[in-house]
Each structure stands twice: as C-alpha cells, then as structure tokens.
TrEMBL record:
Gene3D superfamilies: Hypothetical protein af1432. It comes from the Bacteria. This is HD domain-containing protein. Coiled coil: none annotated. It comes from Streptomyces kasugaensis. Pfam families: HD. Residues 1-50 are annotated as: Disordered. Residues 73-157 form the HD domain.
C-alpha cells in the first residue's frame, strides 16, 4: 500500500473518497445457499441474521472490503453475526446498522493504512469509524456509541462500569 505523504493531507471528507488501494478487485460476495440473497429478495441473510443493506452499510462494506484482507473482512462480518444473534437471544434493543458498522471497523486499526504507533489499534479503528460516520452526517450520539464500542472491544470489563 502507498504510504500517506505530507503533500496529500486527508480530511474526514476526502479520506474515504480517495483511498488508494493498489489491489486487484475482489470478486463479489457469493450469496450463501438458502440465504435469500439475490436480486430483489431483500437483504442478505446468514444464519437467519439480516445483513444491513442501507446505503451507509453498503458503503462501509465496500470500504472495508477494499481496505482489508479476506481474513479481517470475513472476521468482521462474523463479529456482526455473532453480536446480532446474541442481541436477539437476550432480547436486547440495538441498531443493526450501527452494530454492523462497528463490527466492520473494529479491527481496521490492525491494517497498515490505519495503524498508528501513538495509540492502541482499537483507538485507530474507532477513530476511522468516527471519521467515516461524521463525514456522512451521522449524529454525534450515534457516532459516539460506535466509537466506544470499537475502542473498548478488547476490554469488556470497562463498559460494565459505564452509564447505559
């Protein structure tokens, strides 16, 4: 990947319009057999869980698909599936779109493009999610939920002590 250079500063508004990825295009996802995914059939479903298909979710999917390897991309989607299933089984109210975007971005700080040497990878991923959502006009309270979820995803004892 091409390193960021001082002569090409990125802002939240431009960072996701001009991401440089000299990778070959990845093939489109093949719908899972029996998933109900296909033209005109609604959102993709995996294991009974609907994958959010809003414009924002699709944009986040494309971005993370382009900027990560297969391991991180598929891991991130599984994180959403397990999280959504857990939420359903425990009767938790959650915003599927926010949980999905949080899951997609949660390990972005592990990639070369988004890793910094000044902070933990969780914060790098959380900061990128914040920039992505803020650049698209998402309200600050929703952005903060995603940021906190990503920043704290490896320290599960901390959120138990935070306000609901």
């Amino acid at each position: 990947m091409a390193p960021k250079t001082p002569e090409t500063p990125e802002t939240p508004e431009t960072a996701y319009k001009s991401h440089e990825t000299p990778k070959a295009p990845k093939p489109p996802e093949t719908p899972q057999a029996g998933s109900g995914a296909g033209p005109g059939s609604g959102p993709e479903r995996i294991g009974g869980i609907a994958i959010p298909d809003s414009g924002l979710a699709k944009e986040a999917t494309e971005l993370v698909r382009d900027l990560t390897d297969d391991l991180i991309y598929h891991h991130s989607r599984r994180v959403y599936l397990f999280g959504a299933r857990h939420g359903q089984e425990h009767g938790l109210a959650f915003d599927p779109e926010l949980v999905y975007i949080g899951a997609l971005f949660h390990d972005l700080g592990l990639t070369e493009k988004f890793r910094s040497s000044q902070q933990r990878f969780e914060l790098d991923g959380a900061d990128e999610a914040r920039a992505f959502l803020t650049a698209r006009g998402i309200p600050e309270d929703r952005v903060r939920l995603v940021w906190e979820g990503i920043a704290l995803h490896t320290t599960p004892e901390i959120p138990h002590h935070m306000a609901p």
